[in-house]
């Protein structure tokens, strides 16, 4: 006898199960691939208001953060008298702390079934740390401020990403993450641009610029408090520990593949603070060095949304491979010469790589994790990436001090090649061929 045909009711139930996150062990970009391929062209109009608000919250907080971070390496080297290794240590500890904290906030948001409260606490904490940078007399205080700021980022990151995944329909999820990332990155280039203008106006007064950065940070936390409404919690849902063994088993091979690739690619991309130092080596005036971050984030912002849309319509693995190729090109260009024109080309390629890959990886995590474990999934992803970021930044700082800037970027290119080989190798060993 032939197999019994599926009824319409059974098909509806299966679709419902897929939406609840009962993901198969297929490749990372297979879940919902046909739905993504057939997504309507007007996907932007289907994005809910909450995603837009979260994007503008990210924009304001990035203005605040990047006004400080685009100047901080120079502040530490020229005002506080630290070396490149200290810059790498502080940046590595700070960024890895943010990524590691995400595992706890993501798991807690899954346990409570609530995302907004944790995200709001994280944004508020980051806003309240900004005055410490203006007051910092030593590198130790800068480290404290950076760690507290990044703890705030870590607390808000996984719940915010999980909230976006909860709000956005699967058919436009890549678009939603791309939009959020694009708005976030608009703030990331407006912040350095404001820093340049204020540094020129106030004769390189770092601390005065840091005080101004407090304003958009507090505004971001306020907007989140009043502008985002969390989807209602399921009736009768009990609080369950999301990291119990039976729950962790539901994070399948496809998810852990994404985690591994994310970690290896993070090793290849150390802190952007070294882009600022590279530009300074080329003789760019101190007040104009933040324009390097403006250029990078301009490309990042303009490319994040289009590549987010593209990720809804093509193979994730193929797009990730192209992103790694771009990073290899960026590292090689930055290694060749410190002339401002050459550095600018490398920085633009770096920004393009970020636009191609960061929203993509967030989408891949969402598509390979059960809906009720998304917070934990983002947390574990960022935990592993956090350790990779710490190692990468420490290594970059050490190489910079001992062997010079060029060698540092050549090593970055080598790690990018390794990441690409791992990615291509996974195609062959698992027969995960890229779909055209």
Q: How many strands appear in the DSSP assignment?
A: 0
- Beta fraction of the residues? under 5%
- Average residue pLDDT: 78
Count of discrete domains: 1
Helix count equals: 18
Order of helices and strands: HHHHHHHHHHHHHHHHHH
**Structural class by sheet pairing and helices:** mainly alpha
What is the CATH superfamily label? MFS general substrate transporter like domains
Beginning-to-end CA distance, first to last residue: 37 Å
Oligomer type: single chain
User: What radius of gyration results from the CA coordinates?
Assistant: 21 Å
Describe the protein.
The protein is an all-alpha fold. The chain has a single domain (about 45-225, about 245-430), classed as Growth Hormone, Chain: A, CATH 1.20.1250.20. Helix content is about 75%, strand content about 0%. It is built from 18 helices and no strands. It has helices at about 10-20, 35, 50-70, 70-80, 85-110, 115-135, 140-165, 175-200, 205-210, 215-225, 245-250, 255-265, 275-280, 290-310, 315-335, 340-370, 375-405, 405-430. α17 (about 375-405) packs antiparallel against α18 (about 405-430). The longest helix has 30 residues, at about 375-405. It is globular and about 55 Å long. The chain starts with 7 loop residues before the first helix and ends in a 7-residue tail after the last helix. Residues about 1-40 and about 430-435 have low confidence and may be disordered.
């Amino acid at each position: 006898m032939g197999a019994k045909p599926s009824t319409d009711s059974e098909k509806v139930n299966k679709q419902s199960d897929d939406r609840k996150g009962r993901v198969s062990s297929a490749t990372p970009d297979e879940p919902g691939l046909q739905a993504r391929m057939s997504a309507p062209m007007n996907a932007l109009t289907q994005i809910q208001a909450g995603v837009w608000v979260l994007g503008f919250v990210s924009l304001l907080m990035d203005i605040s953060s990047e006004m400080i971070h685009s100047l901080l390496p120079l502040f530490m080297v020229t005002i506080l008298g630290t070396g490149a290794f200290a810059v790498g240590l502080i940046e590595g500890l700070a960024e890895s702390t943010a990524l590691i904290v995400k595992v706890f906030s993501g798991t807690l948001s899954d346990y409570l079934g609530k995302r907004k409260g944790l995200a709001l606490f994280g944004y508020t904490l980051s806003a309240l740390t900004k005055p410490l940078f203006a007051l910092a007399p030593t590198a130790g205080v800068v480290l404290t401020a950076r760690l507290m700021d990044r703890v705030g980022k870590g607390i808000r990151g996984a719940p915010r990403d999980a909230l976006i995944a909860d709000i956005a329909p699967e058919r436009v999820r890549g678009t939603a993450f791309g939009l959020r990332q694009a708005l976030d990155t608009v703030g990331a280039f407006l912040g350095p641009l404001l820093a340049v203008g204020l540094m020129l106006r106030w004769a390189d007064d770092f601390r005065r610029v840091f005080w101004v950065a407090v304003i958009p940070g507090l505004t971001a936390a306020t907007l989140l408090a009043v502008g985002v409404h969390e989807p209602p919690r399921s009736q009768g849902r009990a609080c369950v520990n999301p990291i119990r063994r039976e729950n962790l088993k539901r994070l399948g091979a496809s998810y852990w593949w994404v985690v591994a690739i994310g970690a290896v690619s993070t090793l290849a991309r150390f802190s952007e603070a070294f882009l600022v130092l590279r530009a300074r080596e080329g003789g760019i005036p101190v007040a104009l060095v933040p324009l390097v971050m403006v250029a990078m984030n301009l490309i990042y912002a303009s490319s994040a949304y289009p590549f987010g849309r593209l990720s809804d319509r093509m193979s994730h693995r193929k797009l990730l491979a192209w992103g790694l190729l771009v990073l290899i090109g960026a590292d090689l260009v930055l290694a060749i010469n410190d002339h401002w024109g050459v550095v600018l080309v490398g920085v633009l390629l770096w920004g393009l790589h970020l636009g191609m890959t960061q929203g993509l990886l967030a989408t891949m995590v969402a598509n390979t994790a059960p809906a009720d474990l998304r917070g934990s999934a983002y947390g574990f992803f960022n935990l592993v990436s956090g350790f990779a970021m710490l190692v990468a930044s420490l290594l970059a700082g050490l190489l910079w001090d001992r062997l010079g800037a060029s060698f540092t970027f050549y090593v970055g290119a080598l790690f990018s090649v390794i990441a690409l080989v791992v990615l291509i190798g996974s195609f062959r060993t698992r027969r995960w061929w890229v779909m055209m």
